[in-house]
């Protein structure tokens, strides 16, 4: 496209198909302990 | 056109950035597209003439036609004007979670005692509104058994050795790691241990042990010496910076600059906190987390509404400097600017809250269970203990039911897929309700997300 550059992202809707396995890190355990950020975490579902 | 689409547009550091909130798509656009997207949201088939008129002749008709076509193409491919279809999904996901609860992480309060007197400490010098105490091996082992027993099919189990200051009871930490490891094979579990420490007792022996056993190491330091020492004095009133800095540098290097964070808190006293982040980088740390203080708004160091514009600008300053340093080949990772656009979590994780009170619990030295470390000592939230399990069943139900759709402000917020509704302890402390919103925290969170995505755009522009 000439006017738009799209970054590669994960489509949320597709993630509902095999999502919710829960193997990912608990939000608060990483470093924060006073906030909640999930966008920075990596999916650990190997079958997604 | 569905009414529940959500597009968030913003300009930052010369980029026009468009988030299609409900698909997660991120677009970098020129000015024509940026101006057209809001106009076409309710009228995707608007004629070229109408669009030309609405833009007051700002662009050439031919350019408008071309840009509008690209916008329609994005919509066709499901990357723009995507309706929100997740509320029912989250409901069914939540229902399943409540019917079959799984606990996967514990914050073990190894010591309700501390050798620092940090002024903003929510643990009140380690005591958490209670008494000084050290966790015994017996309580800790029972906590690990409790975690294993309640973790269902979950393989990865997280245990944070927290305090107070956990190195004040480090023999117990070592024994608990040994015990956890001894149970991994028979149970098929994998423990990921984290140690959060203020560094005052971080000996080579402890560091060697941590490097062998700890999945992550969180090292508490606030930044510049004067900033750190004002808020993080010893019991005798001396600063801690000179003691901890060399130890932390050694720790970061011995871990190959990965799987650790130096973690600081900024307050009303250092609203120029970008300098603290950059100071930590200048001192040799690559993994840095510096976060807003959470405290009673009456405290003199509490962040105030009038601080917010300054803090937002600080994030912009920091983002630009991080890009500059990264482009120079000087790696720096700021925790709150981390964002994984391609490999990030599924939507269930994104919408269903932080996990406190249901999949994540805090354990006091004597084995009591609370929804998270920030609720410890608040008797209304006492869930049970590691021996009898969760006896107050309504509390996990209350926490497990909270998601971005139960929080009115989150529903309307573009950031909901990145923060998952935010910290429930912050919400509770600010509003008295875990479904409330801590408005200052939300404003800062939105800014961090905007900066994080801008950084992705800038680095992509530079070939990654």
Could you please describe the fold and organization of this structure?
The complex is a heterodimer of chains A (48) and B (464). Chain A is low in regular secondary structure and 48 residues long. In chain A, 8% of the residues lie in helices and 8% in strands. Chain A is built from one helix and one strand; from the N terminus they run βα. Chain A has one helix spanning 15-18; one strand at residues 4-7. The relative contact order of chain A is 0.23. By secondary structure, chain B is α/β, with parallel strands linked by helices. Helices cover 41% and strands 16% of the residues of chain B. In chain B, strands 4, 5, 6, 7, 8, 9, 10, 11, 12, 13, 14 and 15 form a twelve-stranded mixed sheet that branches. In chain B, strands 1-2-3 form a three-stranded antiparallel sheet, sandwiched between helices.
């Amino acid at each position: 496209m000439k006017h738009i550059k799209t970054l590669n992202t994960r489509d949320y809707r597709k993630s509902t198909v095999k999502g919710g396995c829960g193997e990912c890190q608990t939000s608060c355990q990483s470093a924060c302990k006073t906030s909640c950020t999930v966008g920075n975490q990596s999916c650990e579902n190997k079958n997604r | 056109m569905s009414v529940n689409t959500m597009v968030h547009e913003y300009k930052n550091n010369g980029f026009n950035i468009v988030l299609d909130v409900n698909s997660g798509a991120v677009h970098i656009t020129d000015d024509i597209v940026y101006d057209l997207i809001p106009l076409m949201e309710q009228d995707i088939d608007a004629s070229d003439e109408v669009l030309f008129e609405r833009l007051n002749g700002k662009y050439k008709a031919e350019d408008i036609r071309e840009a509008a076509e690209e916008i329609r193409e994005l919509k066709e491919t499901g990357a723009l004007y995507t309706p929100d279809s997740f509320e029912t999904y989250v409901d069914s996901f939540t229902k399943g979670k409540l019917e079959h609860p799984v606990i996967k992480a514990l914050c073990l309060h190894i010591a309700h005692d501390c050798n620092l007197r940090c002024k903003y400490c929510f643990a009140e010098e380690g005591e958490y509104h209670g008494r000084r105490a050290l966790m015994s091996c017996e309580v800790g082992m029972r906590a690990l058994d409790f975690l294993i027993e309640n973790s269902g099919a979950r393989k990865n189990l997280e245990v944070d050795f927290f305090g107070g200051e956990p190195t004040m009871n480090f023999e117990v930490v070592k024994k608990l790691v040994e015990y956890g490891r001894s149970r991994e094979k028979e149970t098929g579990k994998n423990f990921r241990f984290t140690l959060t420490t203020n560094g005052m007792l971080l000996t080579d022996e402890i560091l060697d042990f941590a490097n062998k056993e700890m999945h992550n190491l969180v090292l508490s330091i606030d930044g510049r010496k004067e900033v750190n020492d004002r808020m993080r004095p010893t019991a005798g009133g001396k600063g801690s910076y000179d003691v901890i800095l060399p130890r932390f540098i050694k720790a970061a290097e011995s871990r190959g600059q990965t799987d650790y964070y130096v973690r600081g808190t900024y307050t009303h006293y250092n609203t120029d906190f970008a300098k603290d982040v950059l100071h930590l980088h200048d001192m040799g740390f690559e993994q840095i987390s510096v976060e807003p203080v959470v405290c009673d708004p009456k405290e003199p160091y509490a962040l105030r509404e009038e601080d917010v514009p300054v803090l937002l600008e600080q994030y912009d300053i920091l983002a630009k400097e991080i890009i500059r340093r990264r482009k120079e080949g000087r790696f720096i990772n700021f925790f709150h600017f981390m964002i994984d656009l391609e490999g990030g979590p599924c939507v269930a994780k994104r919408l269903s809250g932080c996990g406190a009170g249901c999949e994540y619990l805090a354990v006091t030295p004597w084995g009591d269970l609370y929804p998270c470390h920030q609720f410890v000592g608040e008797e209304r939230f006492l869930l049970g203990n590691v021996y009898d399990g969760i006896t107050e069943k309504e509390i996990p139900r209350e926490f497990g039911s909270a998601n971005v759709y139960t929080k009115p402000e989150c529903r309307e917020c573009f950031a909901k897929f990145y923060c998952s509704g935010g910290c429930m302890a912050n919400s509770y402390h600010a509003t008295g309700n875990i479904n409330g919103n801590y408005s200052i925290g939300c404003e800062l969170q939105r800014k961090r997300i905007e900066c994080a995505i801008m950084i992705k755009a800038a680095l992509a522009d530079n070939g990654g």
